[in-house]
Amino acid sequence: MSCPNSVQIRRLETPSNREIEGLSDVLRDCVEGGASVGFMVPLTGSKTEAYWRSVLESATRGERVVLLAEEATGAIVGTVQVIWAQFENQPHRADVAKMLVHRRARRQGIGAALLAAAEHCALSADRTLLVLDTASSDAERLYVRRGWQRVGTVPGYALWPAGGFCSTTIFFKELRRGPSRTAAPDQPGNLPQFDNGGRPMRRIKSRKRGEERRGSITGSTWRYRIQGLRSSYARSR
Ligand SMILES: CC(C)(COP(=O)(O)OP(=O)(O)OC[C@H]1O[C@@H](n2cnc3c(N)ncnc32)[C@H](O)[C@@H]1OP(=O)(O)O)[C@@H](O)C(=O)NCCC(=O)NCCS
Known about the structure:
By secondary structure, the chain is α+β, with helices and mostly antiparallel strands. It has 2 domains: 7-174, Aminopeptidase, CATH 3.40.630; 180-235, no CATH class. Helix content is 24%, strand content 34%. The protein is built from 4 helices and 12 strands, in the order βααβββαβαβββββββ. It has helices spanning 17-32, 45-60, 110-124, 137-145; strands at residues 7-11, 64-71, 76-84, 93-101, 129-134, 149-159, 165-174, 193-194, 200-205, 212-218, 222-225, 232-235. The strands form 2 sheets. A 7-stranded mixed sheet has the order 1-2-3-4-5-7-6, sandwiched between helices. A 5-stranded antiparallel sheet has the order 8-9-10-11-12, with no helix packed on it. A hairpin with an 8-residue loop joins β3 and β4 (93-101). α1 packs across α2. The chain is globular and about 40 Å long. The model is unreliable at 180-237 (pLDDT under 50). The structure holds coenzyme A. Coenzyme A is lined by residues 1, 30, 35, 37, 99-101, 106-112, 132, 134, 136, 138-139, 141-142.
């Protein structure tokens, strides 16, 4: 499955009114279709336009990247944002947000193409850990297919557009470039590693075999669970 050839994914650089209208149309269609993406119905044109203008100002300040999916006719049918983590202790992290595909263009691979482009964009900027949350089961399947890991669900996190609480599910994906998995843990630029339970993993030496494995830090002591071995051992802080 791939994005139709007639649809192009590109980064929005200097937005025109036409693009703001197109993005507003996609947002309004998704919200009217029941997507919990920050807005309630009825969603007015002035609200969607104000939202996109503020997003694009933020992109101009270098805080995020806005990608869009555009048909050959110029019609915008989808979008996604990569928002750089602002804190100085998270130079390797970004959020993926507002992945939206117009209902008339769904199930053609555009969502998958937008997500792939967002990941590529993040990795190009040396962001190697991506986080997102979603209330959509359609989106969940897409994230899992592209290797994202499910962390858990927060019940009653937000409202559906027409009212009523909805839960959100948090995902992360670690992006890898080349042989980064084997880099030393405390070196700058090293990728943070997580196990399937979302726990941070450190490279450690197995006492039994003297070989290095990835392990998890759990509990009040540094307990390294060695992957691939049944046994574990603890070291006091
Ligand atoms: C989630 C969302 C972005 C997915 O967009 P999309 O363009 O439909 O995504 P894709 O086309 O890549 O994949 C959707 C499905 O179509 C299928 N598909 C993709 N290309 C296809 C093709 N050529 N023929 C048939 N099926 C296809 C995929 O396998 C997938 O199947 P699944 O639903 O059984 O898992 C879209 O549903 C959406 O905008 N939802 C509302 C907004 C929202 O909630 N966004 C999430 C915020 S985090």
